[in-house]
Amino acid sequence: MKIRILCGRKEVELKKTRDYDGTFQTIKTRHKRLLIGIINECFHKHYPMDSVVELLPARSPLVSEGENGEAEIEDRESDCVLKIGADYYLIEVQSNDAENMAIRIAEYTFIFARDIAQGDQGHVRLKIPHYTVIYIKPTKETPRYTRITYAFPDGWEITCSERNVFLSDLSKEEIIEKKLYAYIPFYIARYEMELSTEKNYQKALEDLAFFRDKMVELHQTKELTGEELTDLGSFVNTIVVHITDGNDVEKEATSIMGGTVYETESERLRRVGREEGMEQGIERGDELRLIKQVCRKLQKSKSVEQIADELEEEEARIQVLCDVARDFAPEYDERKILAAVMQLESV
Questions:
Q1: CA angle, corner 110, sides to 107 and 116, nearest 5?
Q2: Do the beta carbons of residue 136 and residue 189 sit within 8 Å?
Q3: Could you say which of 122, 133, 191, 291 is the most buried, measured as most Cβ atoms within 10 Å of its Cβ?
């Protein structure tokens, strides 16, 4: 779907696709640890970043009456349901406004409460999860809160109210300071107009460079793993490509994060590794072989000096490989290590 707006005399089409949702779903499944920062900020929690995050099924059936009076079963699927400790959380991500969002949240929370309900023949206790709606591109009409009021036959009412998240409210500095790393790929959406029209987009490029440098620093201080660093950069470029749609700004913008990436870097490297005969593939193959050798020696608890001497490589080079490889211990996935090394070398 595309939305037509007017910019001066030029008609501009801003896309509404599933790129934003797809990126969030990938973060959820591959890097669920990064959701802890969102939970802490939204619900005033203080979970450590190494807390256990349990992803729960987000799809459940809802029975309704069809046109012919027969029962119909429809699937209802929220974006994310997770559990930390004894608490449950429901996160919905919206790129734009949705008129029926409150009804959807009411359905999602009730279905979830039904699925985990405890009781017997004469009594049931429904536990409603915490919930929030994250709006990537809010408008003046976007509600600040999502409220659900339960009205009972005796006149008693209970209202659940949770504050929505407007990403446009958050500065780039706040995203880093509050450990809201999962928001990094979506930050650039606030510059959709500038990037799509190729006008006044320099600030967008500066902010991309800010996040690139901060992510590298976070990796160096062990706040981000090598795989998180690599994939976050790829997710940023996925959103940039979605916005620029092949215009002249795309190459300049994606190069900041290390080149145009349409799939995650780890996926791309697996594909490139199968493309034999290409010079770039050969160079990466040599690097991959060196990484494999380094990993085997790290597993034997050898020092950087010993490894450099035995492999006849410069100690500085081996130090870099060892620093990155340790993030992937004890499995030492060589291809993921290679992806992280390339990301560091591209900045």
A1: 140
A2: yes
A3: 133
Report yes or no on whether pTM surpasses 0.85: no
Residue 135 — φ and ψ, nearest 5°? -100, 115
Other beta carbons within 10 angstroms of residue 210's beta carbon come to: 16
Distance, CA of 212 to CA of 343 (rounded, Å): 10
What whole-number distance in Å separates Cα of residue 260 and Cα of residue 255?
Answer: 6
User: Who contacts 44 (Cβ-Cβ below 8 Å, separation ≥6)?
Assistant: none
Residue with tokens 């400790």: 85
Question: DSSP secondary structure string, 275-332?
Answer: -TT-HHHHHHHHHHHHHHHHHHHHHTT--HHHHHHHHT--HHHHHHHHHHHGGGTTT-
Rounded to 5 degrees, what angle do the CA atoms 85, 54, 33 make? 95
DSSP states of 199-235: SS-HHHHHHHHHHHHHHHHHHHTTSS-HHHHHHHHHH
* pLDDT tens by residue, 102-124: 999 999 999 889 888 888 888 99
Q: Do 324 and 341 touch, CB atoms closer than 8 A? A: yes
Interatomic CA distance for residues 250 and 30, integer angstroms: 26
Q: Is the peptide bond before 330 cis (omega within 30 degrees of 0)?
A: yes
